[in-house]
Design brief:
The complex is a heterodimer of chains A (307) and B (558).
Chain A lengths: L2 H29 L2 H8 L3 H18 L1 H4 L30 H37 L1 H16 L2 H12 L3 H28 L2 H9 L3 H37 L11 H7 L12 H26 L4
Chain B lengths: L14 E12 L2 E13 L4 E5 L6 H7 L8 E10 L2 E2 L5 H7 L4 E4 L3 H4 L6 H11 L5 H14 L5 H4 L9 H12 L6 E5 L7 H18 L2 E6 L2 H7 L2 E6 L2 E7 H6 L4 H8 L18 E8 L8 E8 L4 E5 L6 H9 L6 E6 L2 E2 L9 H6 E4 L3 H4 L6 H13 L3 H14 L4 H4 L9 H14 L4 E5 L7 H18 L2 E6 L2 H7 L2 E6 L2 E7 H4 L6 H8 L8 H9 L5 H8 L1
Parallel strand pairs in B: 3-8, 3-9, 6-7, 7-8, 13-18, 13-19, 16-17, 17-18
Antiparallel strand pairs in B: 1-2, 1-4, 4-5, 9-10, 11-12, 11-14, 14-15, 19-20
Helix pairs in contact in B: 4-5, 4-7, 7-8, 15-16, 15-18, 16-18, 18-19
The chains are: A mainly alpha (307), B alpha/beta (558).
Chain lengths: 307, 558
């Protein structure tokens, strides 16, 4: 593609995306109740586009068998068929439909990434708030343990753990969730540290409230904004992590469709000038950008900036 | 550098604001902050701006610099400074003006200085930036200003970092900084509100002195009438963005025209009759020989003893750092004393709150200074008040709902209107009332009130004091009232405990405490409370001497 055509196409793509985002936002505002609509109206076009993209991905993930024309690991033809009906994005190295695998990949990669992020958040947040609330020795011990885990580069650490525990989906989920919960722990602890010194926590302590009540009713509701923003970012990292592990052959195992391994499987096509292997990579990139658009908006709101 | 005498003879006002309208963005809608205020300020004149919080004082003060906070905009009117229309100036031109011809002194000096740079470097920044002086010249000038402001060791003072000087000194250093380019106009935005009464005086004296010497015009913003009375030539009263009235200070104090102004003036006169002391009764709370501190090497409290009897209010007064709040922390069990004990109705309380029984916890309640941080912003009023009632009294369902409604009625808030609101949907005074409701929901015997009115406007504060007073007689409560405001003490206390450096220096019934002879420190505290008489500061400085106020006077006492 020449530079000129990129210059022509880029503004068109951006305009169409933002327009689609605007349409999506207007539709949503019509559909939901008044307070939610008021909240949605503050979303910039970028965030609207992000929400639209996320909705599309989620739809793909949920309704994968209905959308995909073929079976997930069905071998249909010769390898590397070109883009032509009925294989709209061609076939891969084993003759499976790329479009079908792309749709199933949304379900596998996005679903597992969501599960991992959720686990990491439950563990990291609870432990972080607990540490901040208790302070002293408990905080020190937990903090140093987390430091030890964080000191090992995450990719190397996960490769190591997966080699030891095997590459089942369960061990993949647990290993990445553990590693990511350390990052969540740091954030949750620092957010909670600011909250625990407020008077209403002191009042609740003096009232004789239990630790569980303090964490769930007094601290957690006031820490949601930064944690929600971090959830979005963390989700992207987890997502990239799964894809890179799959690319290295230690993530989701064949024949399960996964965007990371799809890039690897079809990588040789690149040397023939075929962009098919870039499509799953693009799917990863677009979701990452979309999530970040939404997170930016939420962060901006949480920071209370007005302009 | 030419002295600013070129234009002083001209009779045109220095600052003219006409029909200024300012709007602020709140919850996605534009609300009016200032609705059409006029303002004239002559050279060398000091204008006092008075009003409750939310009246638009600070917004108007900032507008005098052609500046708006984030989320605000000037929608109408004109602001003219020395013939320049500030609203049509470019950002660059305004930047040339600010700091050089118009300076600003903020409420919190500690938050306004950069903690990483020496005071002198921050002083020199503006003169160098605006090419008014060379560095060496600016330093000499700084030293001379420090000297005039009675700062200790003026030659070396500028070499210190902000955290190395006291709050009062820092505020004076900031005033000196505002003067660094010899501006024509300085805006003082509540410069002494965060300071103790004794330190307030030295800052007031320094500001007034220096404004007079340089013939600088000033806008002095404050909610404290007595302070403004000392500083201003003219007073303008604002209410919710509208001007109520404007008159010269003497006239305004003697014969205010509008009802609102009169009500502001009357607040300070609320006083409750002293409750008689019942002798031979077990005190509700008794603190015996408490010595406590946050590190084993340093004691904050030294051998503190006093008792609080049923239905009585004990006011604990003293400057910041005197150990008032630490005493409260020992009573509530947040800080374990090194020696001594606290007992409730004759039985000693465990030193740590975690070892206390639910009933012991119930009987000692606390109301905080900042209602904003004392109420969980994510809980509804219903849940905030219901929690202690459910926990301590085992109420639930219908009974709990009725109790919450009763409590809301007791604090004079209509249950149907407020029960489902969040704290952010209430005013400052209402939030404080919810704090009170939460405390009495536990049906305690004793409540610690930690500076409960100091963050509130005078009218609202008076309402809170009256409410506390009424609840005391209805519910047989005992109060420990931590405050630095002696007007509050006069209004509500039965007994007064004066603390200094962790020691109780004097204690006794209110009627005795306000009559001489006093302990030297009590004398200083009492004498430092500004009075509504505009001549008060002059008389005080004359009788005590300019070197014997604030920190200097306290140091002399040791």
């Amino acid at each position: 593609m020449s530079l000129i055509s990129v210059l022509i196409w880029l503004p068109i793509v951006v305009a169409v995306s933002l327009g689609a985002g605007w349409l999506f936002r207007q539709t949503l505002i019509r559909l939901v109740n008044a307070p939610t609509a008021k909240f949605l109206r503050t979303a910039p076009l970028t965030a609207s586009f992000g929400m639209l993209t996320i909705t599309i991905y989620v739809t793909c993930a949920v309704f994968a068998p209905l959308i995909a024309p073929f079976g997930e690991s069905e071998i249909l033809s010769a390898s590397f068929e070109p883009w032509a009906a009925p294989y709209i994005l061609g076939t891969d190295n084993l003759g499976r439909d790329v479009f079908t695998r792309l749709v199933y990949g949304a379900r596998n990669t996005v679903g597992i990434a969501f599960l991992i992020t959720a686990l990491a958040f439950v563990a990291g947040t609870l432990l972080g708030i607990y540490s901040a609330l208790k302070g002293g020795i408990i905080d020190q011990v937990v903090g140093r343990l987390i430091d030890v885990l964080m000191a090992i580069p995450s990719l190397i650490f996960s490769l190591l753990m997966l080699t030891i525990f095997g590459t089942s989906v369960i061990s993949l989920v647990l290993v990445i969730a553990t590693i990511d919960s350390t990052r969540v722990f740091r954030l949750a602890r620092s957010v909670a540290l600011n909250i625990v010194q407020l008077d209403y926590i002191e009042a609740a302590k003096l009232r004789g409230e239990s630790t569980v009540y303090l964490i769930t009713r007094e601290i957690l509701p006031n820490a949601t904004a930064p944690l929600a923003a971090e959830f979005g970012l963390r989700f992207c990292f987890v997502f990239l992590m799964i894809s890179s592990l799959s690319f290295l052959g230690l993530g989701l195992q064949p024949p399960t469709a996964d965007w990371g391994s799809m890039v690897r499987d079809n990588a040789e096509l690149i040397s023939f000038g075929d962009i098919t292997p870039l499509i799953p990579a693009g799917a990863i990139a677009i979701l990452t950008i979309a999530v970040n658009f939404v997170v930016d908006w939420l962060l901006h709101r949480a920071s209370g900036l007005k302009d | 550098m030419s002295p600013k005498t070129t234009n002083t003879s001209s009779s045109a006002p220095l600052l003219t604001m006409r029909n200024v309208h300012i709007k602020g963005l709140s919850d996605e809608t534009w609300v009016d902050i200032i609705n059409g205020v006029d303002l004239d300020l002559n050279r060398g004149e000091v204008l006092g701006l008075i009003g409750e919080s939310g009246a638009g004082k600070s917004t108007l003060g900032l507008a005098a610099m052609g500046f708006c906070r984030d989320g605000c905009k000037i929608t109408d009117g004109s602001i003219e400074f020395d013939g320049l229309d500030l609203l049509s100036q470019s950002r660059q031109q305004l930047r040339q003006l600010r700091g050089r011809r118009i300076a600003y002194v903020a409420q919190s000096a500690a938050a306004s200085f950069n903690p990483a740079h020496r005071l002198i470097d921050q002083f020199c920044e503006a003169p160098l930036k605006h090419d008014v002086m060379a560095r060496s010249e600016a330093e000499t000038y700084a030293t001379s200003l420090y000297e005039r402001m009675n700062l200790p060791d003026p030659d070396e003072f500028g070499l210190r970092y902000p955290h190395e000087v006291s709050g009062g000194q820092l505020q004076r250093a900031m005033t000196a900084m505002a003067l660094s380019c010899r501006p024509d106009l300085i805006i003082f935005d509540e410069p002494t509100t965060a300071l103790d009464v004794t330190t307030q005086i030295e800052v007031l004296a320094a500001i007034r002195d220096i404004v007079k010497q340089f013939n600088t015009a000033a806008i002095y913003i404050s909610h404290d009438l007595a302070v403004v009375a000392q500083m201003a030539d003219t007073i303008k009263v604002l209410l919710k963005g509208d001007e109520v009235e404007q008159a010269t200070t003497a006239k305004m104090l003697k014969s205010p025209k509008e009802d609102y102004t009169k009500s502001l003036w009357a607040v300070r006169e609320y006083a409750r009759a002293e409750q008689p002391l019942v002798t031979g009764q077990q005190p509700v709370i008794e603190i015996t020989n408490v010595t406590a501190g946050y590190s084993p090497r340093q004691d904050i409290l030294k051998d503190v003893s006093f008792a609080i009897h049923k239905r009585r209010t004990v006011a604990v007064v003293g400057e910041s750092g005197s150990g008032k709040s630490t005493t409260a922390r020992v009573i509530t069990g947040l800080l374990e004393p090194r020696m001594g004990s606290v007992s409730f109705a004759g039985t000693p309380l465990p030193a740590n709150y975690q070892d206390r029984t639910r009933d012991q916890l119930r009987h000692v309640q606390m109301i905080y200074q900042m209602a904003d941080t004392a109420l969980n912003p994510k809980l509804r009023i219903r849940d905030l008040i219901a929690r202690p009632a459910a926990m301590y009294l085992g109420l639930s369902g219908r009974a709990l709902e009725d109790r919450v409604r009763d409590l809301l009625r007791m604090i004079e808030m209509e249950p149907d209107q407020y029960i489902d609101r969040l704290p952010s949907e209430l005013s400052g005074g209402q939030k404080q009332r919810i704090g009170i409701a939460r405390a009495i929901a536990a049906e305690p015997g004793f409540i610690i009130c930690d500076e409960v009115t100091s963050a509130l406007d005078q009218l609202v504060a008076e309402g809170i004091l009256k409410l506390l007073d009424r609840l005391q007689s209805e519910l047989d409560l005992s109060y420990m009232f931590i405050t630095h405001d002696l007007a509050t003490v006069r209004a509500i206390a039965d007994e007064v405990v004066v603390m200094k450096d962790g020691n109780v220096v004097e204690q006794g019934p209110k009627s005795e405490m306000f009559v001489p002879p006093h302990h030297a420190y009590t004398e200083l505290l009492l004498g430092s409370v500004p009075e509504m008489d505009p001549k008060w500061l002059d008389r005080l400085l004359e009788s005590r001497g300019a070197d014997n106020i604030g920190d200097a006077a306290i140091a002399r006492m040791k």
